[in-house]
Amino acid sequence: MTDIRTDMSYAAEGDARFGDYVALLKPRVMSLVVFTALAGLLVAPGSLHPIEALAAIIFIALGAGASGALNMWWDADIDRVMKRTMKRPIPAGKVTPEEALGLGVGLSGLSVIMLWLATNALAGFLLAFTIFFYAVIYSMWLKRATPQNIVIGGAAGAFPPMIGWVAVTGSISVEACLMFLLIFMWTPPHFWALALFMKSDYHKARVPMLTVTHGRQVTRAHVLAYTLALVPVALMAGFTSIGGPVYLALALVLNAIFLQGAWAIWQRDEAQAEADGYATEKRVFRFSLAYLFLHFTAFLAEAMLAYLPVYAAFAARLPLLEVF
What we know:
- The protein is 73% helix and 0% strand.
- By secondary structure, the chain is mainly alpha-helical.
- Residues 1-12 have low confidence and may be disordered.
- α3 packs antiparallel against α5 (97-118).
- It folds into 2 domains: 17-171, UbiA prenyltransferase (Tetracycline Repressor, domain 2, Orthogonal Bundle); 173-324.
- The chain has helices at 18-24, 27-43, 50-74, 76-79, 97-118, 121-145, 149-158, 160-169, 174-197, 199-204, 210-213, 216-236, 245-267, 270-275, 279-305, 309-315.
- It is flat.
- The chain contains 16 helices and no strands.
């Protein structure tokens, strides 16, 4: 396989449009980062001036975009052989690797420094570490080295709510850690559900996804195992200051549905899956997106409902995790 970083023949320098540079920042991934970071910021005790809060979210978003650009720069050789990614700006010949690298490095420095100045040093450090983890630890090392790439690499996507929390409080708490763990434990079953019906892409690109190295049946078992590990983390958050009755009720329903989907995936064999076009796997993957969004929406709902005296008095009866 030719490495795009040494083969520049198909890159049409100068043909890029503004939208191509925006695409380098992975706007769909950025939207999830922004939402979870905003949730972490809004549910944290204390407050920021509205201008500071807006600045914090913008710089966290830019940091996420920088990670995306660096990832596309490094992974351009495999992006052009995968059906899901071959239309990205670099393999499509719209942006050169040098341009992507320059954009990623520039936005990394800008976002980290400005978040530090707008909030505090710890928030800036966590954003810098997140960019480094995604671009170097995950993209340059784990992704091509181990079938556990998604498990360990998932930490990069789990930091944004913690960064939002730290931007307000200047410290890390159990609530911030549970929001981190919620995304961290959600990531493997989410991506492995995708990998089950996208195996050929990863095989073609020689990415050691679990479906490629151990097969689909082992992957199905891993989806179930990690979903089982995810459930107590999601429910535990309901017994902290960011949880409450509404969150717990929604979390119980969402986790029951997710667990049922993981169980259904585990029970299927390849003949069944191929016969219906991996319908169950696709359904669970789509639900996993709503799963994470609704959990963080529930965190926000609890924060807003806390301003209602009647609800606050009712929620106060819920025992907190005082062990922490």
